[in-house]
């Protein structure tokens, strides 16, 4: 059978693409295998207890956070019941459920082993946080009896923002002094779909919205 002249170049081009795809697939499999071996045997966290599948891949966490709508936290509780107070919950993270470990993790002054900024080496100035707490309480007290509607999510976001500003930049209170608690600093800055994509567990608050703000039924 006579074949057209252009048949052979097309066939050869297809073979090259097939070979390239095969090489890429083999490389991906080899890389994944080496990565899993490293995480299970050579990682600094390899000695901590926990499910091997959680230590080997992020897909285990993805399964509960995405397919089960942010329920990985409940799976972590089950892990602690099985493996104890310290559990490896993904390749790079530990979960510690032990109050006695608090002072070893959240330390200050010379006990903090870090090469980060000087402010963090010295630890957190809790007097500064106390000032922000007092300002937060004062704002809520001022609004008592005013018949004003207070968005607690905005108020708490302003509270968190002022603490972050005090610790990182030593700024004075800005968000708590705003009459509406400056909702734009976090609500407008990061769209809700992006926040929920980054923190799938936050989707549970959608249920609260449906309870407290039910959609109006059509007439």
Task: Walk me through this protein's architecture.
Helix 7 packs antiparallel against helix 8. Strands 1-2 form a two-stranded antiparallel sheet. The chain is mainly alpha-helical. It is built from ten helices and two strands, in the order ααααββαααααα. Strand 1 and strand 2 (93-96) form a beta hairpin. Helices cover 55% and strands 4% of the residues.
Task: Provide a brief overview of the structure.
The protein has 219 residues and is mainly alpha-helical.
Give the helix/strand layout.
Elements: H1 7-42, H2 52-56, H3 59-67, H4 72-83, E1 86-90, E2 93-96, H5 102-105, H6 118-122, H7 126-142, H8 152-169, H9 192-198, H10 205-212
Distance, first to last CA: 74 Å
Give the integer mean of the pLDDT values: 76
- Counting H and I runs of at least 4 residues, what is the number of helices? 10
Beta-strand share of residues: under 5%
Helix content: 55-70%
Give the H and E element order.
HHHHEEHHHHHH
């Amino acid at each position: 059978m006579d074949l057209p002249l252009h048949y052979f170049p097309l066939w050869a081009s297809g073979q090259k693409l097939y070979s390239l795809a095969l090489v890429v697939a083999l490389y991906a499999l080899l890389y994944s295998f080496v990565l899993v071996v490293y995480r299970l045997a050579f990682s600094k966290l390899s000695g901590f207890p926990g499910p091997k599948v959680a230590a080997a891949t992020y897909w285990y966490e993805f399964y509960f956070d995405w397919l089960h709508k942010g329920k990985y936290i409940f799976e972590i509780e089950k892990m602690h019941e099985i493996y104890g107070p310290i559990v490896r919950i993904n390749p790079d993270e530990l979960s510690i459920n032990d109050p006695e470990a608090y002072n070893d993790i959240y330390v200050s002054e010379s006990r903090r082993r870090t090469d980060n900024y000087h402010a963090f080496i010295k630890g957190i100035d809790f007097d500064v946080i106390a000032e922000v707490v007092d300002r937060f309480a004062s704002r809520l007290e001022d609004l008592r009896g005013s018949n004003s509607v207070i968005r607690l999510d905005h108020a708490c976001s302003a509270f968190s923002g002022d603490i972050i500003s005090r610790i990182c930049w030593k700024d004075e209170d800005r968000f708590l002094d705003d009459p509406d608690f400056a909702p734009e600093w976090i609500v407008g800055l990061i769209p809700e779909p992006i926040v929920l994509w980054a923190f799938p567990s936050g989707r549970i608050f959608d249920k609260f919205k449906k309870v407290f703000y039910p959609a109006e039924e059509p007439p």
